[in-house]
Amino acid sequence: MKRFGLIGKTLKHSFSRAYFADKFKKEGISDSRYDLFELSDISEFPALIDAHKTEFKGLNVTIPYKKEVMQFMDALDPIAERIGAVNVVKVLSNGKLKGYNSDYYGFRLSLESWLSNHNLKALILGTGGASNSVRTTLEDLNIPFKYVSRNVLADGFTYAQIKANPAIITEHQLIINTTPLGTYPDIDQKADLPYEQLTNEHFLYDLVYNPELTAFLAAGKQVGAKIKNGSDMLVLQAEKSWEIWGE
């Protein structure tokens, strides 16, 4: 039996197990299973690998371990190295571990297929781990961007600076939320922005996928902006994981 799985700290709301169980059933893949492995600390990772090394073919990694797991990799894919985070681990035929980042591919493919215009400037809301794959994608697509954070940044804006100068929103037509704001059950939360500056020329992308229509996206929809949540990215990154494991 080929074993795959997800490691993280709290996995009760995991998308991955249900997704892969459904995939295996639909595609008649009877020799594989996908399990959840909650680790209270990343130091438990080597023991998990050792216990299942002959069965494991690959693992996904979720918060808070995407950076911490890198120390245990024998090799890194160049994209994962640039991003500074690993969310896919492949167990190679010699037992060594190679780290990849499928979030990059999921976000890039979903963004490219959605944007009708690449000649725009972007704002990335948040500077946490999820923002790194977004940053790398925008770099590769030659889309200029600035970060937005509560704290002062050398190359970006604070939310207070944008509220004081709402024209920043007008000048940046692609706005990507990489924060957890608006995630169920706190569905009324959204970034503190001058939403009255949004127009039907704006593109709002929210990495949050639960709920389907976040408060952030609803503010864009109200004025006819193009909106997209993170559900496509989630499916695309899962399929990229499967592709990586099968290479």
Q: Concise description?
A:
The protein has helices spanning 16-26, 45-52, 78-83, 102-114, 130-140, 159-164, 167-171, 215-221, 231-246, and strands spanning 2-8, 32-38, 56-61, 75-76, 88-91, 97-100, 122-125, 145-149, 156-158, 174-177, 203-206, 226-228.
Structure characterization notes:
- The chain folds into 2 domains: 2-100, Leucine Dehydrogenase, chain A, domain 1 (Rossmann fold, 3-Layer(aba) Sandwich), CATH 3.40.50.10860; 104-232, Rossmann fold.
- The chain is built from 9 helices and 12 strands.
- It has helices at 16-26, 45-52, 78-83, 102-114, 130-140, 159-164, 167-171, 215-221, 231-246; strands at 2-8, 32-38, 56-61, 75-76, 88-91, 97-100, 122-125, 145-149, 156-158, 174-177, 203-206, 226-228.
- The model has no long low-confidence stretch (mean pLDDT 96).
Give descriptors for this structure:
247 residues; alpha/beta; Rossmann fold; 6-stranded mixed beta sheet; 6-stranded parallel beta sheet; 12 strands
